[in-house]
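Request from the bench team (R.T.):
"We need a structural guess for the complex before ordering more glutathione. Sequence and SMILES attached. Just send the tokens back."

Command: build protein-glutathione structure.
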Amino acid sequence: MPAFILHHYPNSPFSQKVRLILGRKAMAWHSVHVPSILPKPDVMALTGGYRRTPFLQRGADVWCDTALIARVLERAQPAPTLYPAAVAGPAQLLAQWADSTLFWVVIPYTLQPAGIACVLAGAPPQALKAFAADRAPFTAGMTRQTPVDATVALNTYLGWLDGQLADGREFLMGAESSIADFSVAHCLWFVHLAPPMLPILEPFARLRAWYARVAAFGHGTPAPMKSAEAIALAAAATAHEPTRVVPALGFEAGESVTVTPTDYGRDPVAGRLVGLTADEVVIERHDERAGTLHVHFPRLGFQIRKENMA
Ligand SMILES: N[C@@H](CCC(=O)N[C@@H](CS)C(=O)NCC(=O)O)C(=O)O
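Reply to R.T.: structure attached below.
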């Protein structure tokens, strides 16, 4: 089985979540760096319009969103598990909270002037302007917390997380690491990109020790790859992962649909429905460079619409 290709960029928190999972599972993988702002022509060739980072590829299958990417990596490499049986439900609830609420506190907290200077260090002066112009439509409709509100919220959340470790457990859900650790860790990792913003972690010694444990998992074994090579691999692939459309879920196999994130970066991806379960929706689409692709999304957090009703 060829190694997975992760399309990501260094300063992306959600990419860090996946890199740490690859480290925990000691996997070898191919690393394609994508741009952090539009335009992203090679990303679009593979995803059909989904611009968020990261996404995973193997051959002509593309998986979007880290909630799904984590499950795909779990299937490929079950041990050590991301979903220990006794805590699988609460671990996923905590992960979902971190990926949404905690993440959107950490971003405005870290990107205060003193922090953004570190995160974008070395970038040309116009990069900050271009980044802000890119992210405005990306997050349109969301209320961005003020620095003061974000600081208060982050301090409260760090206290809650530190309290979760009060019984001496090694990881957030117990003795074993779980998906919750990776979702919380990528948020705290982003704060670490901006050293002037780090003192907020100072009072939380248990959480700092936990963070060091998770960071020590590393990133597995990445091998650099160019996006053109990843596109060529997709075009040359002859088979897709098996999929099925469960009839009771409201759509029929072969229908033209669009799939769109419900929270932000709401760019629809159009295609023919080839997979639908309670966990996953899969569409088939054709790209002149990448060939016939199956693009997979988690069912949760995405809206499916029949194309003629979109
Ligand atoms: N729910 C998504 C969120 C992904 C996300 O927000 N990624 C950020 C980067 S960390 C992003 O897409 N930023 C804009 C971009 O990269 O174009 C996931 O779990 O993958």
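Two things stood out. The pocket of glutathione is lined by residues 12-14, 36, 51-53, 65-67, 99, 138, 265 (CB under 6 Å). The radius of gyration is 19 Å.
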